[in-house]
């Protein structure tokens, strides 16, 4: 993983570096590569991977709005934190799906919460989960899994690409899927929050229009709360 910081204020760069290093140290994690830039031009000139970017808006030359759009064109999965004291740019920043908006001066506790959300989301789209079938083993990011469905003696893994007949049971999938983005709504279904279109007290419609998951009434409240927390973490 590479984390990049782009700001024309070196004091902000130093503060972000300290916060990032402190976050990883406090969670007993190895700190990834940190790279800093003082202009949008130098950031875009960097040809290496860009996983998480902390981006200032008001900079000489290329502003952060233009740079953010270019970053998303090159890699739609890059997670961008907009770091600025100018809230009027928020609407423009949202157009390129900024992951979070951090206002200056930076609040350390809020930064830590957002960093946790970013790493959780990053892992969900990059960490590959093996799906073992009788024909072989297929691996893809958890974010591509729409739902796990139990049909009689079969367990089907519905993905954006195709369906797979897993040799593992529902308990296995409950243990191995990310807890923050998957929920067992019924004994026959585990759904991915990312792919939910809408739901009522008994059914959940998923992004693949052919899949409708069951939702038991006794789980409705806990499911709704978990889903709303997930949406809040994605803002």
TrEMBL record:
Gene Ontology molecular function: DNA binding; phosphorelay response regulator activity
Function (record text): May play the central regulatory role in sporulation. It may be an element of the effector pathway responsible for the activation of sporulation genes in response to nutritional stress. Spo0A may act in concert with spo0H (a sigma factor) to control the expression of some genes that are critical to the sporulation process.
Matching Pfam families: LytTR, Response_reg
PTM annotation (4-aspartylphosphate): residues: 56
The UniProt record lists the keyword Transmembrane: no
Superkingdom in the source lineage: Bacteria
Designated name of the protein: Stage 0 sporulation protein A homolog
SMART domains membership: LytTR (SM00850), REC (SM00448)
Domain HTH LytTR-type residue range list: 129-229
Domain named Response regulatory: residues: 2-119
UniProtKB keywords: Phosphoprotein
């Amino acid at each position: 993983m590479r984390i990049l910081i782009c700001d024309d204020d070196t004091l902000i760069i130093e503060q972000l570096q300290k916060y990032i290093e402190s976050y990883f140290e406090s969670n007993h994690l190895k700190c990834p590569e940190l790279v800093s830039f003082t202009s949008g031009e130098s950031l875009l000139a960097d040809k290496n991977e860009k996983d998480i970017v902390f981006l200032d808006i008001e900079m000489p030359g290329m502003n952060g709005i233009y740079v953010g759009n270019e970053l998303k064109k090159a890699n739609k999965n890059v997670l961008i934190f907009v770091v600025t004291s100018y809230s009027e740019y928020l609407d423009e920043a949202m157009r390129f799906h900024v992951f979070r908006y951090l206002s200056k001066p930076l609040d350390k506790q809020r930064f830590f919460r957002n960093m946790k959300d970013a790493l959780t989301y990053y892992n969900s789209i990059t960490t590959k989960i093996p799906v073992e079938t009788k024909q072989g083993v297929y691996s893809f990011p958890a974010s591509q899994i729409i739902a796990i469905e139990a049909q009689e003696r079969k367990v089907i893994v519905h993905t954006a690409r195709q369906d797979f007949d897993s040799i593992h049971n529902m308990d296995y999938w409950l243990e191995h899927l990310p807890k923050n983005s998957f929920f067992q709504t019924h004994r026959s279904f585990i759904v991915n929050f990312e792919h939910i279109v809408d739901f009522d007290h008994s059914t959940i419609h998923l992004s693949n229009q052919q899949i409708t998951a069951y939702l038991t009434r006794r789980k409705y409240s806990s499911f709704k709360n978990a889903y709303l927390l997930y949406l809040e973490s994605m803002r």
